[in-house]
Specification:
Blueprint: H1 4-16, H2 21-40, E1 46-51, E2 56-66, E3 77-79, H3 80-86, E4 95-100, H4 107-134, E5 140-148, E6 152-156, E7 162-166, E8 181-192, E9 195-201, H5 205-215, H6 217-220, E10 224-232, E11 236-243, H7 250-255, H8 260-268, E12 273-278, H9 283-290, E13 298-302, E14 307-312, H10 314-321, H11 326-335, E15 338-343, H12 361-369, H13 375-379, H14 383-389, H15 394-409
Parallel strand pairs: 2-3, 7-9, 11-12, 14-15
Antiparallel strand pairs: 1-2, 2-4, 5-6, 5-8, 6-7, 8-9, 10-11, 13-14
Helix pairs in contact: 2-4, 5-8, 9-11
Length: about 400
């Protein structure tokens, strides 16, 4: 059959692509009908019979027999003389079905037809991949490192789909080698042109939440609920957990004996320090727990402004603030309150913002970033430690200390 050589080349798509029989038939018919429209002006009177399993098809053109001098549309009508060349007993008014060979479409049309088919199948594949990964957003996914670039790592999954792990979605301590498997969550997917762009993240709080589901059976089974996760990727995280079964200790179950259960998660996240906290609807108690390992003496709330003042013994203050201010920052994110630390036994303190006439706002902001927002909270710190924890020069810090000390001397 003249059609066979070309159609055999189409059958490769059935084997190489994940296209079901019905979809392949629909794509093939659409492509061939477009070719017929270009060649004959219309495809309304054509029947296309496709057998994708064999890689074969037939095209039949249906026309009405008219008298020799009455042909007005040679695509819809055929003269009696031409019809009788097909079958000698045709009469005017009868229908004639004639097979159209692909070769009749012309070499250029056939090349265009094949290119159109490739394009349609790629478009179908891309749409399928887009829908597949759209359903996977927020789920953990594993792929292999294919190429390492300055701003992103390109991964390939088992199906050959390309997944992008941008630099800002990587944990700071991440180091990848070509060929190794990487886990993260599918954070998003969008069509760039007709090609899906799949984004993976290892820094999203949802990644840590999904790791809890994977690694801790009680979370997977729904016996323990992860209420909220906040992270500073690679540094510290806080996870609030709850259980509707009073017999289950959610924190103990998540951490495991001597940290056995959470150890694998910590290792996956580049030794990120993870605090697991019992969730409660009591905001004072929740804030106290969120500031762990510090022991809080008293919590005073302003629910309208979502502001909390916590009273601590002086030796507990540095624990509440934590390295780089991470602990108090995450506690605020976890509870939804802006938290200010007050020292027990200290009767008088002054907000740093009160010194805005003498200390520039950006310098005050540097102290606030590490949880220091009052004069005495700054004065209680060692100057060399403040140099390490802020972006301020020692000279600047010493000047701030001088200004603050003058306030209390006065």
């Amino acid at each position: 059959m003249e059609n066979l050589a070309l159609i055999e080349s189409f059958s490769e798509f059935k084997d190489d692509k994940l296209i079901d029989r019905v979809t392949l038939m629909a794509i093939l018919e659409d492509v061939f009908r477009n070719a017929l429209k270009k060649k004959f002006g219309s495809d309304d009177n054509f029947d296309i019979i496709i057998n994708p399993d064999k890689g074969d098809l037939e095209i039949w053109r249906n026309r009405i027999v008219v008298a020799d001098d009455e042909v007005e549309d040679d695509n819809q009508e055929i003269s009696l003389t031409e019809a009788r060349k097909i079958e000698p007993d045709f009469e005017v008014g009868e229908d004639v079905s004639e097979e159209v060979k692909l070769i009749d479409l012309g070499r250029r049309s056939i090349l265009a037809l094949r290119q159109n088919l490739i394009s349609k199948i790629h478009e179908h594949d891309n749409t399928t991949i887009y829908k597949q990964f759209k359903d996977l957003i927020g789920e953990i996914y594993t792929a292999e490192v294919h190429h390492i670039r300055h701003k992103a790592v390109i991964l390939l999954d088992d199906e050959g789909n390309e997944i992008i792990l941008p630099k800002d979605k990587q944990i700071p301590s991440d180091f990848f080698r070509k060929g190794e498997n990487v886990r993260g969550i599918i954070e998003g997917v969008e069509l760039k042109g007709n090609k899906p762009m799949i984004i993976m993240s290892r820094t999203a709080p949802e990644f840590l939440e999904k790791l809890f589901e994977q690694e801790i059976p009680e979370v997977f089974d729904g016996l323990i609920t992860v209420k909220k996760v906040v992270r500073i990727p690679g540094e510290k995280a806080k996870v609030a957990v709850d259980s509707y079964d009073d017999r289950i200790d959610p924190v103990g179950a998540c951490v495991g004996m001597k940290g056995s259960r959470i150890h694998g998660i910590v290792r996956e996240l580049g030794n990120e320090n993870i605090d697991v906290i019992n969730f409660t609807n009591n905001p004072q108690l929740f804030i106290s727990r969120a500031l762990s390992p510090a022991r809080v003496s008293l919590v005073t709330l302003n629910d309208e402004t979502k502001h909390a003042e916590v009273l601590l013994k002086p030796e507990e203050v540095s624990k509440a603030i934590g390295k780089g201010g991470f602990n108090i920052r995450l506690a605020g994110q976890l509870t939804g309150y802006e938290i200010d630390v007050l020292r027990e036994g200290v009767e008088e303190d002054v907000e740093l913002t009160e010194f805005s006439d003498e200390i520039e706002a950006w310098i005050i902001d540097e102290f606030r970033k590490i949880g220091l927002d009052t004069a005495k909270s700054v004065l209680d710190q060692d100057v060399s430690d403040l140099v390490k924890r802020t972006d301020l020069e020692e000279e600047t810090i010493l000047e701030v200390v001088r200004i603050l000390k003058e306030e209390f001397e006065d």
